[in-house]
């Protein structure tokens, strides 16, 4: 019995395309665009349960391609260190090593009270426990004031204060 499934029909049509065109379409669909992703606590107070993007459910090859671009090209911003740690617990271990840019907003009050150094230490230790010392050591921690060249991401400043970033360069 022949399937009338539109997905099967689309796959059949795509498979007839020249390889170059097929790869262009595939890359357009399965490569995550570099964007800032804000991970926030939900209204019920919970945070962390990582919602896997739908494109990671298609098939193994597509999942690997999409996950690589999603985790390595995105900037992840967290309002609280605990939110980051809860989120990291739900990210599959094989994808944690792909993370390159993680940010936390430090309030002006924390900066004025000298808590920025404590926050830095807390983050580094938490990251080492959750992603491994080798990955955490490859990440660079900096405040917005420490950034000498600003790009679209590092130039951000929140209403609450300076942006601390952990970035791999």
**Overall form:** elongated
H-E order: HHEHEHHEHHHEE
Q: If you average the pLDDT, what whole number results?
A: 70
Strand content: 5-15%
First and last CA, distance: 54 Å
Protein name: F-box domain-containing protein
Give me the secondary-structure topology.
Elements: H1 6-15, H2 19-30, E1 36-38, H3 60-73, E2 75-78, H4 81-90, H5 93-96, E3 101-105, H6 108-112, H7 116-131, H8 133-137, E4 140-143, E5 163-167
Helix pairs in contact: 4-7
Organism: Cercospora kikuchii
Protein name: F-box domain-containing protein
Structural notes for this entry:
This is F-box domain-containing protein. The protein is an alpha/beta fold. It has one domain (31-167). It has eight helices and five strands, in the order ααβαβααβαααββ. The protein has helices spanning 6-15, 19-30, 60-73, 81-90, 93-96, 108-112, 116-131, 133-137; strands at 36-38, 75-78, 101-105, 140-143, 163-167. A five-stranded mixed beta sheet has the order 1-2-3-5-4. β1 (36-38), α3 and β2 form a beta-alpha-beta unit. α4 (81-90) packs parallel to α7. The longest helix is centred in the last third of the chain and has 16 residues, at 116-131. The protein is elongated. The chain starts with 5 loop residues before the first helix and ends with a strand.
